[in-house]
Design a protein that fits this description.
The structure is a homodimer of 367-residue chains.
Chain A (H helix, E strand, L loop, with lengths): L6 E4 L1 H17 L3 E2 L9 H8 L6 E3 L2 H9 L4 E7 L5 H10 L1 E6 L2 H10 L4 E8 L7 E2 L3 H13 L3 E8 L10 H24 L6 E4 L2 H6 L9 E2 L9 H6 L9 E11 L4 E5 L2 H4 L4 E3 L3 E3 L2 E3 L1 E2 L3 E2 L7 E5 L3 E5 L2 H6 L5 E5 L3 H6 L3 E4 L4 E3 L4
Parallel strand pairs in A: 1-21, 2-10, 3-4, 4-5, 5-6, 6-7, 6-8, 8-9, 9-10
Antiparallel strand pairs in A: 1-11, 11-12, 11-20, 12-19, 13-14, 15-20, 16-17, 18-19, 21-22
Chain lengths: 367, 367
């Protein structure tokens, strides 16, 4: 399929291989695999999971939950602290499917409990060190109070505890990830014990971040569920952390060359913040970069990234590429370059559809 | 209108006031006002310009040109070096409207000239120091050759020279902007003279960047056209440069509070990279920030930004806000906060529609 403008391209076989790998890993540890679909946001890619017996998913908004419910998913977790302005929609959706919601405050729990008219699985979000959302794990009293409040409400079912160890994204080695993982387990175990001692039973424990789920081989007790999302594509952030190898990255954005500046060893592609997002990543040699560059390859879809070629800056529709003279000389205006994105989730948000190397085109969710 | 989730809100009267101001400024200098519509990307906001006799616009992609042509605009400039993969579409559009395209290479000019079947106004993009696209202004020979090539092609009409002094975005004072502006004028004048001496006549000169167009009071010869875009909203980047005051910013993103953490003076809003973009800006006191925070105000739409309250980090759907204890204490879960965005253009890309403070809702273009 001829590329005419910035186009999000997915390596389908590689993506499916990773889905199978993660599903097998979850099965071997006897934990539920609840992939986070906020990364790809696509019904078609969702279908690729079904072959591996995935029936539970996570999403990051009510709108995304509605989209996947409409596309046949019956067990969906909305993985952000419940927004009390959307309880109406949550209530409607809970009538149709097995819906899971997160709380990290008594206020939200009470309001949710008072307004729901359909069964809702409620999870308490625990902060194990990321310091974004969740009740800090040391506040056992608060956690117990929220659990009590859930149990008193007729339509709220206390499902368990959940965490996102987002601080794993700041790790720079496998050892750091393992330390974060083990520390999370310790905190979650303590909370689970405390809740069991209060008479709560069947407390599920859900963890989910791509670095941990990629690098930990076996998930131990008390984990009952994992929710990685980004692994389905991977990107330069994950490559930098060490969660993946470059060959594991299955998203590229194909962009045509529109301007050449050999006098300063630069090219410009049609492909800027509007197709790649403006996220940057620190590169040891080049400072902040916005993507690495590969070439199309008839057999493998794309080559490896080309040494010393990178996106040095972005504006809305322009991407400036720097590279060695021999590369810049060779590339012609109109040539298609493939960008390995800094952050796949953020790049995906900008696109209405995906295309595979084989030419399959399919739409995705957009807020 | 009740806000339930991250919603892009436009201050309509303020936006219109700025449109009038810029239109008057262009008129006083006797230059054409060709606003860049890549910022708002909306037919409705486009209509607000018509009252001020605007009939020529700039856009940043062929798709956006098609959108505005469908919405009644008959004089459109595609303000990126022409993408040779889209000549078919350009040709079709040129049959319907007065279309303007940019070139910065002989290769693209030749290909465009060989394939066009309808009249196309062609501008040579000049690089006056931004070093993104455009022929460097010192390469007078190359510029002359491109102009010659345009004139030889039956459907290409040589319109003039155009520049985007994007390096003005890195300025930190009005004096720096004035220096960049004066330096641009000098370079463009020299090129114009060189082209006139070759026998080209009626050479238009188009400039356009929001810092320059905001801060320069009178546009002098040889400028015939200005193309500011971002001024229609402004944002924290422009505030930082000094192009505007905070009161001039007419875009905010309304976001509900979903999580409170008074123990660390933090709140979390539903509103992350998916609604605000991940762009950050360096703040003298707080390092990289991702937005300032205002409160809704019944009369004025929003208050001024609250002192020492800012977005310290973003994930896909979460925005973490830091602030003084007295602010954090006061805010309740469910409250709506208004974010002044770092970069209005990049935030706009993420939204399918706008809402005004008065409750008018209207769609916008999306790629």
């Amino acid at each position: 399929v001829r590329i005419k403008k910035p186009t999000m391209i997915i390596d389908r076989p590689l993506t499916i291989k990773k889905i199978e790998w993660m599903a097998n890993k979850a099965r071997a540890s006897n934990v539920r695999f609840r992939p986070h679909f906020k990364t790809h946001q696509s019904a078609e890619i969702g279908n690729w999971f079904k072959k591996y017996n995935v029936s539970s998913i996570a999403v990051s908004s009510v709108d995304m939950a509605i989209y996947f419910a409409e596309n046949g998913w019956n067990d969906i977790m909305i993985c952000t602290p419940t927004n009390i302005h959307q309880i109406d929609q949550i209530n409607k959706l809970a009538e149709q499917i097995e819906l899971h919601a997160l709380v990290d405050s008594l206020e939200t729990t009470e309001k949710l409990g008072n307004e729901m008219q359909n069964d809702l699985n409620v999870w308490i979000e625990i902060d194990v060190g990321y310091k974004r959302t969740g009740v800090p794990s040391i506040r056992i009293g608060d956690i117990k109070n929220i659990a009590k409040s859930i149990q008193k409400k007729p339509y709220l079912l206390f499902a368990g505890i959940i965490t996102h160890a987002g601080h794993a994204y700041h790790a720079h080695s496998i050892n750091e990830i393992i330390t974060i993982y083990q520390d999370s387990i310790k905190q979650l175990s303590a909370i689970r014990e405390a809740l069991l001692s209060e008479g709560h039973s069947d407390i599920q424990v859900s963890i989910g971040d791509t670095p941990t789920c990629s690098l930990i081989e076996r998930f131990e007790k008390p984990i009952t569920e994992i929710r990685p999302g980004n692994f389905v594509f991977y990107d330069l952030i994950q490559l930098n952390i060490g969660s993946c190898k470059e060959n594991d990255i299955s998203m590229t954005i194909a962009c045509p060359v529109i301007s050449k500046h050999p006098e300063r060893n630069e090219l410009v592609i049609y492909g800027g913040g509007a197709s790649l997002s403006k996220e940057g990543i620190s590169h040891e040699k080049y400072g902040t970069i916005h993507g690495l560059i590969c070439l199309p390859d008839n057999k493998k879809g794309r080559t490896n990234s080309i040494k010393d070629v990178y996106i040095s800056s972005l504006s809305q529709e322009h991407g400036k590429i720097k590279g060695p003279p021999e590369f810049i000389e060779k590339v012609k205006i109109g040539d298609i370059l493939l960008v390995l994105p800094v952050h796949a989730c953020q790049a995906a948000i900008l696109h209405a559809k995906y295309q595979t190397f084989e030419g399959q085109i399919f739409p995705k969710f957009r807020a």
